Amino acid sequence: MPVSRVLAWVALPAAALTLGVGAAVAAPADNADLLRIRGGEVAANGSHPYAALLEIRDGTRLIGHCSGALVGSRWIATAAHCVTDIGRAGSPAWPNLRVTATIGTVNRDDAIPAASQVAGIAAVVHPSFDLMGSGLGNDLALVRLDTPVRANALPLFAPGDPASIISAGTSATTIGWGLEGPDDVGLSNQLREATLPILGDTACGEADPFNAFDGPSMVCAGFLPPAADLAGTCQGDSGGPLIVNTTSGEPRLLGVTSWGFDATCATGPDVFTEVPAVSGPVLAAAAADTVAPLSAPSMQARAISFRPDSANVTLTADAGELATRYIVDYTGAGASTRRVTGSLGAGGQTRKVIRLRALTSATTYDVRVTLSNALGSTSADLAVTTR
């Protein structure tokens, strides 16, 4: 059966042992024993503000550690097998789930600001995830935090977004706090990252020793043929993000670490839940959440401060709880369209002023402003005339 990437600190049921996730692991004696994502590099400070280290408990009992990514002011995307009781049919969330999330740091030895450590006691698990019955299909969950986090969240692709179909050979980045191999114990003191090529579904399926890879709902990344000393994921990296950059250079969440071909973590490749393919039911359930419901963005846009060579567009937006991006396209008579893009902070009302530069004086520009997140988009059209 597939080998998951959770780092467990308690003995789990026999069914979990066949996945390599259940053996009790002794706590490390000192920091020298704390290792990292297999073959990775230390992430630069500030490079992944959405990175999350998750401590999972059932009440007071420590279950294990996973990785994750902040995708909204109160929501962390991770693997379903991190937060569920995989020894019970249906794999329900732990009945007394307690998650402590450390967000945005790259070094656990540093003094961690209190604002970066947030608790969560609720998770939305994909309704079709059932480790006992269907391997690691639909291995996706969102953990809801008790309080909002004012950090840059990682944008999601909308479910089924054609832009999320990534060609084989494209470079992707995975990050996590996991082990370098099965002989190691404990988490990494430092967030690590690895760059992996996306593998084609056919090649991945043919190489899969478990016959568990499902192309429509999973994405494979790593190296074929498998070989030692190549980068990849290991226990403790479960739930961590697989990140790709859009054509505009914006990072997006393509996958979450789910399982690997090799129980020893010595070789790859690795398999990630393809988030855009399976996130619809999870996002729908989170939209119905009474504490932090997810929603599409709304806005009002107007042009201000006209000058001969520039103008400002101001947005008054409700970005909801998800990471939301903006696109501003503007075109003058006889000129090609230019574009300004960026992200809004998740979590309620925000105001953003966007500068349109290199304009021609006494010219009218057609401006379209679009806000979008994984649940929808909204647009406004403006006419801007320079002085």
Q: Determine the fraction of residues in helical runs and give it as a percent range.
A: under 10%
What sort of overall outline do the alpha carbons produce when their principal axes are compared?
Answer: globular
Distance between the termini: 68 Å
- The CATH architecture term of the largest domain is Beta Barrel
Uncertain regions spanning at least 5 consecutive residues? 9-36
Taken as a percent bin, the fraction of beta residues is 35-45%
How many beta-strand segments? 22
Radius of gyration over all CA atoms, rounded: 22 Å
CATH class assignment of the largest domain: Mainly Beta
Helix/strand-derived class? mainly beta
Number of spatially distinct domains:
2
Number of helices, counting only DSSP H or I runs of 4 residues or more: 6
- Record the strand order, biggest sheet: 10-11-12-15-14-13
- Looking at this structure, what is the CATH superfamily of the largest domain? Trypsin-like serine proteases
Order of SSEs, N→C? EEHEEEEHEEHEEEHEEEEHHEEEEEEE
Mean pLDDT: 85
Q: What's the story with the biggest beta sheet?
A: 6 strands, antiparallel, barrel
CATH fold call of the largest domain: Thrombin, subunit H
